[in-house]
From TrEMBL:
GO cellular component: cell outer membrane
First and last residue of the signal peptide: none
Protein name stated in the entry: Outer membrane protein OmpA-like peptidoglycan-associated protein/tetratricopeptide (TPR) repeat protein
PANTHER family cross-referenced by the UniProt entry: LIPOPROTEIN YIAD-RELATED, STATOR ELEMENT OF FLAGELLAR MOTOR COMPLEX
Species of origin: Mesonia hippocampi
Main location: membrane
Keywords recorded for this protein, A-Z: Cell outer membrane, Membrane, TPR repeat
Length: 652
């Protein structure tokens, strides 16, 4: 503002410099300063309201006013302007039907809002449901496939082998051993196999890629004897504490107890290398199962699986806090973003706080699939992603484990392939590429001035959902550029705003990984200073006259009323009316025609009550072309039209 004021006063000072006395100069300077401060900025929306109040209405004016109210959350006024707009023209750009519907919804006229949203949706071919489109899940799984090299481990038997806790360079897993004909272990009457026991195998000394010749593994020593199954071990980083799952057979005392339940136990490693001081966790119950423990990176939380009452489905993943003394806190369900009405099981949390688990409730390839989700610092979750093939298959895939600070690990599967050995086998993997967030998209673009093409710094670009709720907002940089993250496979409104510009928005369906959305905004508040063209401020591209005529047509009168309203709003403002033609026709004829049109424009304003002393008018014919379309130069109709223009230049 200060710079604009200085510029205005400097120009005025130069104009009055030839005055005879310093006193006269001071009076004019003070008068000019008062006038400048009096009209300061021209607000196009305010001027348009005055034009409508005078009885002059056009489609462009109603669009402008409707949008102004809409973008400023004045939905009742927006609704009225959009209704008037549709009375003038019922075949509008689809975005106006959407804005009308949103305005109706905002003031509680939901039934009518749905009607107009349906009209919008039909034109642009989208579904109203959640303002989103259906997702091709097979495509998404494919985008994260082929990121692994996998191999069946040599330790697998013809029975069941699964799991993979890492303890002091050893893989600790559950195994029944070979099938019953080769096993001396007691058998499970349901599977006909031996009961599962914890076994270990040294993986530090083996080839970390192939793990060939690992041998048969060793039995984990300690007080881990159970009449039934023992499995799913995880360990603290110091190697001194183990959490594991054990199957318990209960006496059938009452109907509330299940005869078989799974419980989680904790054991300590003795100096002799044996697991002792085994204790059941306080979260256990005889009425439901808890199983498959996994520690958080800081070891202050324990994730586990349970079928306890109040869950989302058959089995859910839960988490419980562990204090420094090892006491457990309140059990919390991970919620419906993770848990489904089906089965979620075998959680594992990496050092990067990434949760891997298996589910047959989320869309996958078949059976249990392994999924990935990032746990954010505020304990919210990122996008749920299928890890893809070859780790996942149409069979059950589970017990995913990553070795700390590596891209290598293990998972288990009951897939039926040529290399499969038993009912469940353990596979090793090397992850060759990081998982890609296929449910996220990046929206970038630039916001510029529609007239000057200069970038607009510090403009706000917002992302809005179906209910007109802002999901994200970013600011443009010094080059007018912006970028933001968004959900993929959704419909959004992307809106650009800046205080001195008309807002604009575009509909975007985020099908791709990257999108470009650019904006050209028109100023709505422009400083009134010498040289400013009101035609550009008020979006007056041309004052139309009938061929070879200079009388004002009704459609031209609407445009001129914008200038009249400015002059009425700022009574000390003076302007110069300039009329221009294109190069077609004789030079002298064009000069005379433009002069008649300039004077006709001035006379119209005088008839509308503007003091003639505030107006000057001149025709310039084809002497001030804005492009190269001079005499003899072939140009299109559109190029010639750029030269046929009226200007309303502020001179004081």
């Amino acid at each position: 503002m200060k710079k604009q004021l200085q510029y205005s006063l400097t120009l005025i000072f130069l104009i009055v410099f030839s005055s005879n006395t310093v006193l006269g100069q001071d009076r004019k300077l003070r008068k000019a300063e008062n006038r400048y401060n009096q009209y300061d900025f021209v607000d196009a929306s305010k001027i348009y309201e005055k034009v409508v109040a005078s009885g002059y209405v056009s489609e462009e004016i109603l669009q402008k006013l409707g949008n102004t109210y809409y973008f400023n959350a004045k939905y009742k006024e927006a609704k009225e302007k959009y209704e008037s707009l549709m009375e003038l023209n019922d075949e509008l750009e689809p975005i106006y039907y959407l804005r009308y519907a949103q305005s109706l919804r905002a003031i509680g006229e939901n039934k009518e809002a749905e009607k107009w949203f349906d009209r919008y949706a039909k034109i642009v071919n989208i579904s109203e449901e959640d303002f989103s489109t259906s997702i091709d899940y097979n495509q998404l799984i494919e985008e994260n496939s082929d990121r692994y090299k996998i191999k069946n481990l040599s330790i697998n038997t013809t029975g069941i082998d699964y799991g993979g806790g890492i303890h002091q360079g050893n893989l600790v897993y559950a195994s029944t051993g070979d099938s019953i004909k080769k096993s001396r272990l007691k058998t499970d009457s349901w599977s006909g196999l031996g009961y599962m026991r914890l076994k270990g195998v040294n993986i530090e000394e083996a080839d970390s890629t192939s793990f060939d010749n690992l041998g048969n593994g060793y039995k984990v020593k300690g007080d881990l004897n159970s009449k039934l199954h023992v499995s799913s071990a995880c360990f603290t980083k110091d190697g001194k504490t183990m959490y594991f799952t054990q199957n318990i057979l209960l006496p059938e005392k009452n109907a509330t107890q299940a005869p078989h339940v799974l419980k989680i136990y904790r054991a300590r490693l003795s100096e002799k290398g044996k697991w002792e001081n085994v204790e059941g966790l306080s979260i256990n119950s005889n009425s439901y199962s808890n199983a498959h423990p996994a520690l958080s990176p800081n070891e202050d939380q324990l994730y586990f699986v349970s079928n306890r009452p109040g869950g989302e489905g058959e089995t859910d993943i839960y988490v419980v806090a562990i204090d420094k003394e090892g006491n457990l806190g309140e059990v919390k369900n991970l919620g419906d973003k993770i848990n489904t009405p089906a089965r979620e099981t075998f959680p594992f949390v990496s050092q990067a706080n990434e949760l891997y688990f298996s589910s047959d409730g989320h869309l996958g390839l078949g059976g249990l699939d392994i999924f990935y989700v990032k746990i954010n610092d505020d304990n919210t979750y990122g996008h749920l992603l299928n890890v893809g093939t070859p780790v996942n298959s149409k069979f059950d895939d589970f017990a995913y484990t990553v070795r700390e600070n590596t891209n290598k690990g293990f998972f288990s599967s009951n897939r039926k392939t040529d290399e499969a050995k038993g009912y469940d086998d353990i596979y090793t993997f090397v992850e060759t590429k990081q998982i890609k967030d296929v449910l996220s998209t990046t929206i970038c673009g630039q916001v510029i001035d529609i007239q000057t093409k200069e970038p607009i710094h510090n403009a706000s670009v917002s992302l809005l959902n179906r209910d007109n709720e802002v999901q994200n907002t970013v600011k443009t940089d010094s080059l007018g550029n912006y970028c933001m993250e968004a959900e993929r496979f959704k419909h959004y409104l992307v809106r650009a705003t800046e205080e001195t510009y008309d807002a604009d928005e575009q509909m975007l369906e985020t099908k791709e990984e990257k999108h470009e959305v650019n904006f050209e905004l028109r100023r709505n508040k422009v400083p009134l200073e010498p040289g400013q063209d009101l035609a550009k401020v008020l979006n007056i591209p041309i004052i139309y006259f009938d061929f070879d005529k200079s009388n004002i047509r009704p459609d031209a009168a609407i445009e001129l009323e914008k200038v009249v309203a400015v002059l009425q709003e700022y009574p000390f403002l003076k302007i110069d009316i300039r009329s221009h033609t294109d190069s077609r026709g004789r030079d002298a004829y064009n000069m005379a025609l433009s002069e008649r049109r300039a004077q006709s424009t001035l006379n119209y304003m005088v008839k509308r009550g503007i003091d003639k002393e505030r107006l000057t008018a001149k025709g310039y014919g084809e002497t001030r072309l804005v492009n190269n379309c001079a005499n003899g130069v072939p140009c299109s109709k559109e190029e010639h039209q750029l030269n046929r223009r009226s200007e309303f230049i502020v001179i004081e």
